[in-house]
Amino acid sequence: MSSIDHYENFPVASWLCPARLRPAVAALYHFARTADDLADEGNDPAHHRLDALGEYRADLESCLKHSDSMSTQWPKIFAALQHAVAQHHLPAQPLFDLLDAFEQDVVYTSVGQGYRHRAELLDYCRRSANPVGRLMLHLYGVNDNASLTQSDAICTALQLINFWQDRAEDLQRGRDYLPQGHTLKQELRFARELMMQGAPLARRVKGRAGWELRAMVQGGLRILDKLDARANTADHRQLERPKLKKTDFARIAWRCLVM
Length: 259
Hints:
The chain is an all-alpha fold. Helices cover 67% and strands 0% of the residues. α1 packs across α3, α2 runs antiparallel to α4 and α4 crosses α5.
């Protein structure tokens, strides 16, 4: 479940992913990535983005109903998704939750709205991040409540880490995910607590999926280390995105082994 730069919170079909699951993982990734592009790429005004996401949502509904009326704008996306849903009996709600989150991002950015409190931000993460983990666990046949709860903690932590490492860029684009009345230090500590709450899942999931989870957990924690070192910067628009070096990857690998 390795992450990528464009849609950081979604795993791609890496070599660690069993071959039988790679088409489904790729289908889910391309579904999410395309929706993310509709919400975030280019210079279209907010109402055009929301119209496009509305059409995308309608195509998702048709796809899930196994309608013969396949998408005309995104035929490859929804053909692959329909096959994955049918083959693996994927739940529909996480897919709609992702679209809800993308639409919220468009609206909030268009009016310069921030997050009043942490609970509001966590509700956003519940729809923007947690569906990814739940879909992946479904593919791996893991569905007990403890695992789902720990997956949610990991995914939310990864989403928050992504916000804080991209804080300078987000502020320049008119987005502010930092809850009012909170400091960056507080939110980094909270993200670390969430990651630690979810970390036991990486030891319980067997095989290659468990190793990918370990890498995600330890990679996230290492980025938090680097963010912590610069969190007191007065002007957050000057915060640089942390970069992992060879020594960091060696440390991450060692921590994965000893988890």
